[in-house]
Amino acid sequence: MMALFSKKSAELSQERPAFDVLPEHIGIIMDGNGRWAKKRGLPRSAGHKQGSETFRTIAKECGRLGIKHATFYAFSTENWKRPKEEVEALMRLFKEYLLEAKEDITAADNNKIRFVGIKEGLPDDILALVEEAEEDTKNNTGCDIAVAVNYGGRQEIVCAVNKLIADGKTQITEDDISNNLFTVPDCDLIIRPSGEQRLSNFLLWQAAYSEFWYSDVLWPDFTVNDLYSALFEFEKRNRRFGG
Ligand code: FPP
């Protein structure tokens, strides 16, 4: 009841609510850009453009709320199958973001930026900007914002195992895999807008005990109030971790 009241007042006054419990690691599947554009008779790239604005707003808000890690699913290992123009539009948006990220996200909010996923296959100019952004922000103490690009959860686990084999391991433990993932090993809350209720190869290992929150809103229309709704719901969940 209290949470409902706080949420309403936050919506009315636009103040930032105080949460009793925050997820340490939040994962967001940014879905619905294509449908958002189609509804408006626009090309899919327009949906991605608007989606990238939403990403910036929500990433900053995660930092301001004090969330330690936020992983945003931006491009899967399967997304290369999309039409060339759409892939190019997405790569342009990643580049634009990386070019502006320093001022936009890191200087103002002291957040850390990382691109997580398979680096092979990404254009060289993007890789160079990724390296620069990661280096520039590595000592920041705000939110660790991980953008999952050319990412697949199964592939992430395979990469971890291959690394362990290369290190000479012949027997592995759960901790070995956890310590060799691209992101932190446990995700507390996964948010998926746009009405789909599946994981789509996102944070497979990390989602073992994640809470899920779904919504029909399309990602370009997702607002900080939607984020607050997910967080209020998270606060109410009774997490037992199998116990
Ligand atoms: C899924 O929606 C979304 C994507 C494959 C791309 C997500 C990328 C962005 C939001 C841009 C991110 C930008 C930065 C700077 C990180 P969809 O296209 O599958 O939508 P649909 O299911 O409605 O067709």
Distinctive features:
243 residues, alpha/beta, 6-stranded parallel sheet, 8 helices, 6 strands, 47% helix, disordered N terminus, binds farnesyl diphosphate
Rg, rounded, reads 18 Å
Distance between the termini: 27 Å
Helix and strand content put the structural class at: alpha/beta
The small molecules bound here are: farnesyl diphosphate
Helix count, per DSSP? 8
The biggest beta sheet reads:
6 strands, parallel
How do the SSEs run, as a string of H and E?
Answer: HEHHEHEHEHHEEH
Polypeptide structure, described:
- The protein has a six-stranded parallel beta sheet, sandwiched between helices.
- Helix 1 (2-13) runs antiparallel to helix 8 (224-236) and helix 2 (33-39) crosses helix 3 (44-65).
- Mean pLDDT is 92; it is low at 1-13.
- The chain has helices spanning 2-13, 33-39, 44-65, 84-109, 124-137, 153-166, 174-178, 224-236; strands at 25-29, 69-76, 112-116, 144-151, 189-192, 211-214.
- The two termini are 27 Å apart.
- It has 243 residues and is α/β, with parallel strands linked by helices.
- Helix 5 (124-137) links the parallel strand 3 and strand 4 (144-151).
- The chain is globular and about 55 Å long.
- The structure holds farnesyl diphosphate.
- Residues 30-35, 48, 51-52, 55, 74, 79, 90, 93-94, 97, 147, 219 line the site of farnesyl diphosphate.
